[in-house]
């Protein structure tokens, strides 16, 4: 049986913003097919109803609200904090956050979408990697995602600093992920931590 790949549309006239969001989404939801559109007409020329989600700029959302209101559960508006008051009842993504906060917001939206029937196949199953993490490595990974430094992890798990460093090295080698944000994405996508807890 073939796995369903979720399709995501980004509709934003700001090319740099659209490409940046596309790159983040490809990291977070590797199974998804992501298309960008510079305006609403380009989306309509495509197959507009095939998308699981629409990441749409606030301007385009407001100009074509009749289309998006019907698809409110699928629409995520790219907005500044100041625009959130105009758009109640819509999922919002504050685009003026630092990268870490932005990743966490996207993960929360993605996790919420799963509860609303987003295809579960979009999340790679735990254990899909050749080298699965040991239970202790998972404990270290979870503490890394919570922002603890090596010494704090050692104290919390009652192990030596050298052991923590060895576990971190093993985790990054097994997963091929070096950044804390990348490890956080992995931990959330594999169910080791909930997006709300990071």
Describe this structure in words.
By secondary structure, the protein is α/β, with parallel strands linked by helices. The protein folds into two domains: 7-122, Response regulator (Rossmann fold, 3-Layer(aba) Sandwich); 135-197, Winged helix-like DNA-binding domain superfamily/Winged helix DNA-binding domain (Arc Repressor Mutant, subunit A, Orthogonal Bundle). It is built from nine helices and five strands. It has helices spanning 15-28, 40-45, 58-63, 65-70, 99-115, 135-145, 150-157, 161-175, 180-189; strands at 7-11, 33-37, 53-57, 75-79, 91-94. The chain has a five-stranded parallel β-sheet with strand order 2-1-3-4-5. Helix 6 (135-145) packs across helix 8. It is elongated, with a radius of gyration of 19 Å.
Distance between the termini: 35 Å
How much of the sequence lies in strands comes to 5-15%
Number of domains: 2
What radius of gyration results from the CA coordinates?
19 Å
Average of pLDDT: 80
- Poorly predicted runs of 5 or more residues: 116-130
Helix content estimate: 40-55%
- CATH C-level category of the largest domain: Alpha Beta
Question: Strand pairing plus helix content: what structural class?
Answer: alpha/beta
CATH-wise, what's the superfamily of the largest domain?
Answer: Response regulator
Helical region count?
9
Strand adjacency order, main sheet: 2-1-3-4-5
Number-wise, the strands total 5
Shape: elongated
User: Which architecture of the largest domain does the CATH hierarchy give at level 2?
Assistant: 3-Layer(aba) Sandwich
Q: What are the secondary-structure elements, in order, as H or E?
A: EHEHEHHEEHHHHH
From the 3D structure, determine the CATH topology of the largest domain.
Rossmann fold
Profile the largest sheet: 5 strands, parallel
């Amino acid at each position: 049986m073939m796995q369903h790949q979720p399709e995501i549309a980004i509709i934003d006239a700001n090319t740099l913003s659209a490409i940046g969001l596309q790159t983040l989404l490809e990291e977070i939801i590797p199974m998804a097919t992501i298309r960008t559109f510079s305006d609403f007409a380009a989306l309509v020329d495509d197959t507009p109803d095939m998308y699981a989600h629409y990441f749409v700029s606030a301007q385009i959302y407001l100009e074509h609200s009749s289309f998006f209101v019907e698809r409110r559960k699928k629409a995520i508006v790219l907005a500044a904090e100041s625009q959130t008051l105009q758009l109640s009842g819509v999922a919002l993504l504050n685009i003026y956050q630092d990268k870490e906060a932005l990743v966490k917001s996207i993960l929360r939206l993605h996790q919420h979408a799963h509860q609303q029937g987003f295809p579960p196949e979009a999340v790679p199953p735990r254990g899909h990697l050749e080298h699965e993490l040991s239970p202790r490595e998972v404990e270290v990974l979870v503490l890394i995602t919570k922002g603890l430094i090596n010494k704090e992890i050692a104290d919390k798990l009652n192990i030596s600093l050298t052991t923590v460093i060895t576990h971190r090295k093993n985790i990054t080698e097994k997963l091929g992920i070096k950044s804390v944000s990348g490890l956080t994405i992995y931990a959330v996508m594999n169910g080791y931590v909930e997006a709300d807890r990071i």
